[in-house]
From TrEMBL:
<dbReference type="InterPro" id="IPR036539">
    <property type="entry name" value="Cyt_c_oxidase_su7a_sf"/>
</dbReference>
<keyword id="KW-1133">Transmembrane helix</keyword>
<dbReference type="GO" id="GO:0097250">
    <property type="term" value="P:mitochondrial respirasome assembly"/>
</dbReference>
<keyword id="KW-0812">Transmembrane</keyword>
<keyword id="KW-0809">Transit peptide</keyword>
<keyword id="KW-0496">Mitochondrion</keyword>
<keyword id="KW-0999">Mitochondrion inner membrane</keyword>
<feature type="transmembrane region" description="Helical">
    <location>
        <begin position="88"/>
        <end position="109"/>
    </location>
</feature>
<dbReference type="InterPro" id="IPR003177">
    <property type="entry name" value="Cytc_oxidase_su7a_met"/>
</dbReference>
<keyword id="KW-0472">Membrane</keyword>
<dbReference type="GO" id="GO:0006123">
    <property type="term" value="P:mitochondrial electron transport, cytochrome c to oxygen"/>
</dbReference>
<protein>
    <submittedName>
        <fullName>Cytochrome c oxidase subunit 7A-related protein, mitochondrial-like isoform X1</fullName>
    </submittedName>
</protein>
<dbReference type="GO" id="GO:0005743">
    <property type="term" value="C:mitochondrial inner membrane"/>
</dbReference>
<dbReference type="GO" id="GO:0045277">
    <property type="term" value="C:respiratory chain complex IV"/>
</dbReference>
<dbReference type="GO" id="GO:0002082">
    <property type="term" value="P:regulation of oxidative phosphorylation"/>
</dbReference>
<comment type="similarity">
    <text>Belongs to the cytochrome c oxidase VIIa family.</text>
</comment>
Amino acid sequence: MFYKFSQMTGRIGAASQQAAFRPEGVLPLTQTEAPPLIFGSPVKPAGEVAAAPQGKPAIVRNKVPEMQQIMQKPGNLLFVKRGGLDTVLYRGTMGLVVVGVVYACFGLFQAMMPKKSED
């Protein structure tokens, strides 16, 4: 005799041999044909870029060598090398970090101090 756990009732009940060794929801394979290819269409090479609205080809300029030249120059700090916007973003980020640390310390301090009840 074979038994199987019923998820519906939450109990163990009698079952056939085939049902006892087959997990819930898993059925034997019925389809043996390969499905049609989803990506069967030809693929464009990575170098091709969509045409610009005027019909001229869009030329993407590689900025990596220029940025490497800027970052490798000796002198200023890294966050100042590209100009004023980088400085503003750096200082703003550092300001938010300081405010966050102060707020976290304030929250910890308030959690540490017992509150006096007015009974």
